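Researcher: Last one for today. Full complex below.
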Amino acid sequence: MELSTLVSSMLRLGVPLLLASLGVLVSAKSGIVNMGMEGNMLWSAFVAAYVTDLTGSPLVGLLAAVIGGMLYSLLMGFFIIKGRGNHVVCGLGLNFVIIGATTVLLSVIWNSSGYSTPIKRLPQLDLPWLGQQSMNLIVAVIAVFAVWFLLSKMNVGLRIRSVGEHPAAADSVGVDVVKYQFLALAIAGILGGLGGAELSIGQMGYFIKQMTASKGFLAYSAVIFAGYNPFIVVATTMFLGLLDAFQMRAQTMFNIPGQFLLVLPYLVTLLALIGVGDTKRPKAAGKTYVRGNF
Amino acid sequence: MIKISNNTKEKLKWQLLDLMYIAISIVLALVVGGIFMAILGCDPIEGYWIIFSKAFSSFGQVLRRSTVYILTGLAVAIPIKTGAFNMGGEGQVAAGALAAAVIGSAIALPMGIHPVVCMLGALVVGGVLAFISAFMKVKFGSSEVVTGIMVNYIVMYVIQYLSMYTFRGSANSAQTAEVFETAKIARAYPGSQWSYGLFISIGLCLFFAFMINRTRLGLEMKSAGLNPLASRYQGVNTKTMSVLAMVIGGAMAGLGGAVEVLGGRYLYLDTYFASFGYDGIAVSYMAANNPIGVIITAFIISVLKVGAVALDRQTNVSIHYITALQGLIITLLVSPYLVRAVLERLRRRKREAELVANEM
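Model: Here's the assembly. Have a good evening.
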């Protein structure tokens, strides 16, 4: 197979993962275990498709997906921070809400149980060698630097990180823990929204039932492999993208049953989790901070 | 004498609290479900009438589904006692079902022993799958939720391959051959939907309720979940407890698949077993992870699922609304301070309004 087509499809498959992973990373730094990223992406993919279908403008659809993703993420924050819910279970619960809701809405809006009608896609770039790429490739590149700059160079980022490492200490010097966690979740929702929209209106031009296929969890794992570093996240998500790209090519090239190739990204993720422990995890991850009770 | 009666009182109080919790979650489920129906433009009263009349007319179907839900509910409820979350139920059910179908249709064994061997096979397969996640959790600190989902996908594809090629028993679809007569679990009466498998499920609930509340092993499991540090200090091997509880959970999910194969469908059909595992999460959480409570909530979820088929057919409310409903119930149930946060906000707003009114 040609290298350029492989790289091109790696980028296409990696970009949604990269955006979602950056979202998971920002929220993780504030101490939130973001198991709701799957729902975040699926919801945004749906909103993007629906609003694009409605208005005829993919850019409006993208904006709607970003807002939708942010609202979803803040809702999860409301359950986790205000409701003091278990991070993992709240995230999983909301994933189910979105899986159910989008499937129901799919049948209500497009009168179908699997696919929406074809939907206009975002402007596509025609790059030399790399072929056609969605404009979100550029957004993703900017997002990597933006997330790095936010977390390592800005005051806000420092506060987000302090909240994730030791909320009581942060609180004692006047950092509003709840505010920064919600802020981190809003940013995560925006990034997850971009990633989700990329799936439906960036590439496919359809909304498909459960089209994320656990990409949210792959994104979560990619962040762990990367040791919570935004630049290494690029490498890990692109590697998963490459696997997926290879898997798709190999299905047409070799005489291997499709199932054994489809399994690749999940199998590699599982094996990689054996090799890499979650050691760089923020200290207060998964714990809900309650003043005077820590 | 007084001491004993005090103890009993205390215990009764806790059991009553659990019962209240279950009642609240059921009411919550019905209310939220009604709101969903209303949003989708269906009269909730009419919707529930359709659901309950369908569930009543296919009561055997409800009991048959309950049989599986009880076991997938246990698959979540037992590990959670040690603080482990069994996300792999989905794969464990399907793998257990395939194992039972293969043993039941490929190996000839005498009556009586055959179903037991099939179920043992399913127990082992489910347990092994759960062991992967549990082992990775205690050894490498990987989230058992993420590994569980990865295992689910791997199992899904591998099983699809196995049912399509290796163990295919039908020319038309990806399914195994029907199990032998000797391997079947008898139905409750000729022509009934549900089988004696239901009693296996209920029996296991009673067994695990006893194990968790009355035995040393159960106490150690609970303490490992409630306070790992203190338990370790007391000599409890919390990691072993976690792995053990997960393996038991996985085995229960596998058994759930086996019971449906041996007492219901009589063969493994690809994707037929989808969503049983995930539904188990709602079953367990609605029951406050209480093994006895699981019997009640499994029944409720089963009623909703069976009824929703009729709702899907007669109105525009798709059956998938149950998935959303379960998700929202789980989320609401694990966020205990949510109601308080909302009430406080309302109270504050009211107070502010009063202050403004007083100043004027």
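The longest helix of chain B spans residues 2-39. Chain B touches chain A through 48 residues (CB under 8 Å).
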